[in-house]
């Protein structure tokens, strides 16, 4: 019997939790706020689903209900992607070391 | 149009880039590069999605237009937001991820064939479970974050809102979700799906309203985690590796942050989630307050003490953020340094309204990050320091956490401010802190209370130095 592809995805998921666990513990506490804003930005990769919802399929009428929800999700995720990455960038630029005299 | 295998490889690459983005945050030097990795990962994911759909009709223009509209709104917010408003910004962003997850789940439910999930009324059981979980968690994240946002913004009172049987009611709502998802798999009815979403919206509100303002660091981290699990749920539905990896990363990141925050308060996660903490019992405190004398000082006294000290440790708290005193504080420290005083900063894990909140504010005021220390790194230094300058912090310095097992904050790690030769406490009044307990430190012989707005007092001290 073949292995269900779901099991492969589950494996990726569980291994990623472990990767996340170790990577996040090594984040320095002073960068916890940028950590939150950047995780916010990357979780908006959900935009992938939104794009599929709005573009996929043979749709003569792109204003079907499912497309509309896709469009709305694109806007929301885009706010988050740009907002999240840029505000993280802005914060990280402020972290400076002591100037050597 | 690219093949599904090739696009899967690209999604994997963007997942790896996201891991590197988080990895970069292990030190401020590598963090900026890490953020670029994150942006690259996102760009790859979006481009590959366009290519794999291969729909280059006019609707593509709409999509790109929407992307740009959302993007410019996001960029505008990112550049305009003041650093003190970071907690509410992050809460607001979480709500958007949550709602986006709900929307994607809805459109997958309405049109399963475009996601290869079967057809309407005949969706694969596994996909149904995944998408309803994604939608439910997304909906909880959405309304929960909105409540957190309102509380942080001060639009809604930070006081816990509780009512009789609240936890049982939440429990019933939670279990009804499980039952509904079970029946949804059986009969695949639209109305059940909508009901799941509506109940989840309600549950999100009810879960966050009993949690008080100063517990927001835990709440934000928790919602961060939820937004990750929602993304992972959708990732399973769409069979998309980038989403699954990201969801797992974000989910575990938020969970770890919640754990760190709970530990910083010596409270269990459930204790925080069940809420109702910090209901200040004003009457019992007003009585004994008048009996104990406090030493009341002014800016000149404080300036004199600090100018003649050889080392000063600054303990910032939420009050500093409220008063926007970080710039004045840095100026004061600069003046002190010119007088040959050694100055460092001590940050408690739960100072402020979100993890790392104080660090960002100090960084904004151009405080070099190698002068800023975490609790474990600096706690032993208080015994050797001449002056501790507590600005806007309270509970995190309360020695009662070490001595009185009856106290609600007993066992919470605190900054050993009382060991310093003298303590300067900038505070607007003698009112107890968030935990609702009196701070013994106010009445000690070596404590000088400076009753004023944090920013105003700091500016006055600069003048007198």
Note poorly predicted spans of chain B.
Answer: 278-290
* Strand ordering within the main sheet of chain B: 5-4-3-6-7-8
Rg from alpha-carbon coordinates of chain A: 19 Å
Largest sheet of chain A: none
What does this structure look like?
The complex is a heterodimer of chains A (101) and B (465). Chain A is mostly helical and 101 residues long. Chain A contains 4 helices and no strands. Chain A is flat. Chain B has 465 residues and is an alpha/beta fold. Helix content of chain B is 61%, strand content 8%. In chain B, the strands form 2 sheets. Chain B has a 6-stranded parallel sheet with strand order 5-4-3-6-7-8. A two-stranded antiparallel sheet of chain B has the order 1-2. In chain B, strand 6, helix 17 and strand 7 form a beta-alpha-beta unit. Chain B is elongated, with a radius of gyration of 25 Å. Classes of the chains: A mainly alpha (101), B alpha/beta (465). The interface between A and B is large, with 83 and 115 residues.
Please name the defining characteristics of this protein.
heterodimer; A: 101 residues; mainly alpha; 4 helices; 69% helix; B: 465 residues; alpha/beta; six-stranded parallel β-sheet; two-stranded antiparallel sheet; 18 helices; elongated
Topology of helices and strands:
The complex is a heterodimer of chains A (101) and B (465).
Chain A: H1 5-25, H2 32-43, H3 47-55, H4 65-92
Helix pairs in contact in A: 2-4, 3-4
Chain B: H1 4-23, H2 28-53, H3 58-80, H4 86-110, E1 118-119, E2 122-123, H5 125-153, H6 166-187, H7 190-208, H8 216-238, H9 241-264, H10 269-274, H11 282-291, H12 299-307, E3 311-316, H13 318-323, H14 326-338, E4 342-347, H15 357-364, E5 372-374, H16 375-378, E6 387-391, H17 400-403, E7 422-427, E8 447-451, H18 454-464
Parallel strand pairs in B: 3-4, 3-6, 4-5, 6-7, 7-8
Antiparallel strand pairs in B: 1-2
In a nutshell, what does this entry contain?
The complex is a heterodimer of chains A (101) and B (465). Chain A is mainly α.
């Amino acid at each position: 019997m073949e292995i269900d592809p779901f099991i492969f995805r589950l494996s990726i998921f569980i291994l990623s939790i472990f990767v996340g666990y170790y990577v996040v513990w090594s984040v320095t506490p002073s960068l916890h706020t940028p950590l939150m804003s950047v995780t916010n930005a990357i979780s908006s990769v959900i935009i992938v689903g939104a794009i599929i919802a709005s573009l996929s399929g043979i749709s003569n009428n792109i204003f079907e209900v499912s497309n509309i929800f896709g469009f709305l999700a694109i806007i929301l995720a885009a706010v988050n992607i740009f907002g999240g990455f840029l505000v993280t960038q802005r914060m990280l630029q402020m972290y400076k070391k002591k100037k050597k005299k | 149009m690219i093949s599904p295998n090739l696009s899967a490889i690209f999604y994997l690459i963007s997942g790896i880039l996201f891991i590197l983005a988080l990895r970069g945050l292990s030190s401020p030097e590598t963090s900026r590069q890490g953020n670029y990795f994150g942006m690259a990962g996102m760009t790859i994911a979006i481009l590959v999605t366009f290519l794999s759909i291969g729909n280059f009709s006019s609707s593509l223009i709409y999509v790109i237009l929407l992307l740009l509209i959302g993007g410019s709104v996001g960029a505008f917010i990112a550049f305009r937001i003041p650093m003190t408003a970071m907690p509410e910004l992050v809460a607001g962003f979480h709500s958007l991820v949550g709602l986006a997850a709900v929307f994607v789940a809805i459109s997958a439910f309405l049109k399963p064939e475009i996601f290869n999930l079967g057809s309407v009324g005949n969706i694969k059981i596994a996909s149904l479970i995944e998408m309803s979980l994604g939608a439910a968690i997304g909906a909880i994240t959405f309304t929960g974050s909105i409540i957190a946002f309102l509380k942080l913004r001060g639009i809604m009172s930070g006081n816990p809102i509780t009512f009789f049987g609240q936890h049982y009611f939440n429990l019933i709502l939670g279990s009804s979700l499980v039952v509904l998802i079970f029946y949804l798999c059986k009969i695949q009815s639209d109305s059940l799906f909508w009901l799941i979403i509506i109940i989840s919206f309600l549950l999100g509100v009810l879960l966050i309203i009993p949690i008080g303002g100063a517990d927001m660091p835990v709440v934000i981290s928790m919602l961060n985690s939820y937004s990750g699990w929602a993304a992972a749920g959708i990732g399973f539905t769409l069979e998309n590796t980038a989403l699954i990896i990201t969801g797992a990363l974000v989910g575990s990141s938020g969970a770890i942050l919640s754990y760190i925050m709970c530990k910083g308060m010596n409270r269990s996660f459930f204790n925080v989630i069940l809420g109702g903490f910090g209901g200040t019992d004003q009457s019992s405190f007003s009585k004994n307050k008048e009996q104990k004398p406090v030493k009341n000082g002014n800016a000149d006294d404080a300036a004199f003490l600090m100018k003649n000290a050889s080392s000063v440790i600054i303990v910032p708290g939420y009050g500093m953020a409220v008063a926007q005193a970080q710039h004045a504080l840095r100026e004061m420290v600069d003046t002190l340094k010119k007088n040959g005083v050694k100055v460092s900063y001590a940050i408690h894990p739960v100072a402020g309204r979100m993890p790392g909140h104080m660090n960002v504010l100090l960084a904004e005021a151009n405080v070099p990050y190698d002068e800023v220390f975490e609790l474990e790194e600096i706690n032993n230094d208080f015994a050797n320091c001449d002056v501790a300058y507590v600005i806007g912090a309270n509970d995190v310095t309360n020695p009662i956490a070490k001595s009185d097992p009856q106290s609600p904050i007993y066992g919470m790690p605190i900054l050993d401010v009382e060991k310093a030769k003298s303590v300067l406490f900038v505070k607007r009044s003698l009112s107890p802190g968030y935990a609702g307990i009196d701070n013994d430190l106010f009445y000690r012989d070596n404590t000088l209370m400076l009753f004023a707005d944090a920013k105003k007092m700091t500016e006055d001290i600069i003048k007198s130095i």
